[in-house]
Amino acid sequence: MPLTLQDLIALTRYCAGFGPDERATKCHEVLKRVNEAACFNGITGKVHPFYGDGSITSLLMRYSLGQIPSSLDYKMLTVLLTVVLTLFEASKEKL
């Protein structure tokens, strides 16, 4: 499933709830579950009962997500950077 801006925002909101040392690991865990959901959907034609339809937003709608302030401070920028770098890394692996 293609990555959307909403996926980026949802993943940033999710990862903001963790400390700096945990964020990349949590991001990778989400991507692993999203991949499992996409595979499940591809095989069965059904939405995964726990992980959704294979999109990041579908999975993370099942969690309580933090808010992103309208003014991005240092913390939020570091969270966003971690998410973008993790997504970039994951996209390179698929090539």
Automatic annotation (TrEMBL):
Highest taxon in the source lineage: Bacteria
Domain spans labelled DUF7742: 2-85
Name the UniProt record assigns to this protein: DUF7742 domain-containing protein
UniProt cross-references to InterPro entries, sorted A to Z: DUF7742
Lineage: Bacteria, Pseudomonadati, Pseudomonadota, Alphaproteobacteria, Rhodobacterales
